[in-house]
Amino acid sequence: MWKVVLAYDGTDFHGWQVQPGLITIQGELRDAIARITGETVLPQGSGRTDAGVHALGQVASFPLAAPIPAANLVRALNRALPAAIRVLTAERMPDDFHARHSARSKMYEYRIFRGEICPPWQARYVFAMPAPLDIDAMQKAAARVCGEHDFTSFTATDPDREQEESGMAADNVRRLSLSEWQQQGDLLIYRVQGNGFLHHMVRNLAGTFLEAGRGNVTEGQITSILEARSRAQAGPTAPARGLFLVGVDY
Fold first, then answer.
1. Residue 57 and residue 175: Cα distance in Å, rounded?
2. Distance between CA atoms of 150 and 86, rounded to whole angstroms?
3. What's the predicted TM-score (pTM) here?
4. In CATH terms, is domain 2-92 a member of 3.30.70.580?
5. Using CB atoms within 10 A of its CB, is residue 238 exposed (0-12), middle (13-18) or buried (19+)?
């Protein structure tokens, strides 16, 4: 079994998963492997990023019969893939390794540009928000979701996808070990790590914490939103362009 780590600009792709008639990350990787080796395999990702979402460290796994050195596989794939998708590393793993099922945790970032004018070379990768925000309120709200909770209020309604994403029961209970905001120059970054994520969960968390920054949601209301188990109680879904899958731990 092969394990590859990928980075990609998701702007021009219809997400990770293969879809008929649409250009996707999984489809491009599958086609590149076929051109190089002549083998038809469907790479399994650590999770399905949505259309417009980016990755710094997506992981995919797939079997290959062809005996090819890892360095050669990386070079060949990067020649065959579009420039918006890069294979960073490749390594052989035990046969039972699976990019999704073997994952122990994932890290995501949501990036907000706080300057008055967002540079055009950053516009595809951030949510531009120059309006005043109470960062302390956002930090306190973010801390409230650490630990194990039912995140029904922060997920899109898609039970089949949720179960498939995490390999866990579709009860929407997840454990977050990190949930915090960091300021880096003009960037305000939400970082979150957990054992699994539901459909739109990070974007819904970010959107809700932005409402806390605007003064529309209090720290205490975050607990009430979790307990309500109702998507209608949480804030809006933040745009896909600000979201990055940073890495996956095994």
1. 21
2. 35
3. 0.91
4. yes
5. buried
Q: Which two tokens stand for residue 80?
A: 């065959």
Average pLDDT over the chain reads 93
Q: Please compute the mean of the pLDDT values over residues 185-189 and round it to a whole number.
A: 96
Q: Any idea where the domains of the chain sit in the sequence?
A: 2-92, 105-249
Same fold, 2-92 and 105-249: yes
**Alpha carbon distance 191, 142 (integer Å):** 10
Class of domain 105-249 (CATH, top level): alpha beta
Is the distance from CB of 1 to CB of 93 less than 8 angstroms?
A: yes
Both tokens of 10, joined, read 């998701």
Residues catalogued as catalytic: 50
Rounded Cα distance, 179 and 190, in Å = 7
- Give SS3 for 241: helix
pLDDT band at 66 (very low <50, low <70, confident <90, very high): confident
